[in-house]
Amino acid sequence: MRKFLFVLTILFSGLMAQAQVEVKPTVPVTGTEAPAGPPTKAVMMFTDGNYDTDCDYGTVDYNGEPLRVVKFKNTGTEPLVIRNARGSCGCTVPNWPKEPILPGEEGQIEIRYATNRVGKIDKRVTVTTNEEKEHIIRVIGNVLEAPKKETEEAVPTSAPNIIKGGN
Q: How far apart are CA 77 and CA 127, in angstroms?
């Protein structure tokens, strides 16, 4: 029995030691970034001078004006093509120019938010162009609650009650 326990202990120790060995990859890993596509000289810059920007609705009334405009300029040397612009949900709908924006020219993206949703706004619009990186427009703001309507048909406090017997 002692020999069996001794052999079992040595076998178990060997397995534990083997589990600690670090296996090195045979193929060298060269960075985690995706390979860059062909270089483009189109550069989309928003009017605030940033690569990404905010679209601030501020405080908006319930069902208030849902449209905001974000302006940009092509500061590159080749035409800028916006391939797609998509909102982070169905309540944020962008509309972008479908024609190329020539170098030095300006364009705008219209963003329509469903202002029938009460509360804080914090959404994203992702803009894909012929540049290597996507642009992010952060849509922020706050939608106020709808004004409460006074109704003449309010429930009376002394209404007859079936359980209590009518009066």
A: 20
68-82 tens-digit pLDDT = 999 999 999 999 999
- Give the DSSP letter string of 41-84: ---EEETTS-SSEEEEEEEE-TT---EEEEEEEE-SSS-B-EEE
Structure tokens at 148: 């409460």
Q: Give dist(CA 124, CA 84) in Å, integer.
A: 14
Q: Which pTM value belongs to this model? A: 0.64
Q: Which residues contact 4 (CB under 8 A, 6 or more apart)?
A: none
Neighbours of 127 (CB within 10 A): 23
Contacts of 139 (CB under 8 A, 6+ apart): 54, 55, 57, 68, 87, 92, 111, 113, 121, 122, 123, 124, 125
Residue 77 makes CB contacts below 8 A (sequence gap 6+) with 41, 42, 103
| Contact criterion met (CB below 8 Å) for 40 and 78 | yes
pLDDT in tens, 14-50: 666 665 555 555 544 444 344 455 555 899 999 888 8
Closest among 125, 110, 121, 123 to 144, alpha carbons compared: 121
Q: Which domains does the chain have, with CATH numbers?
A: 44-143 (2.60.40.10)
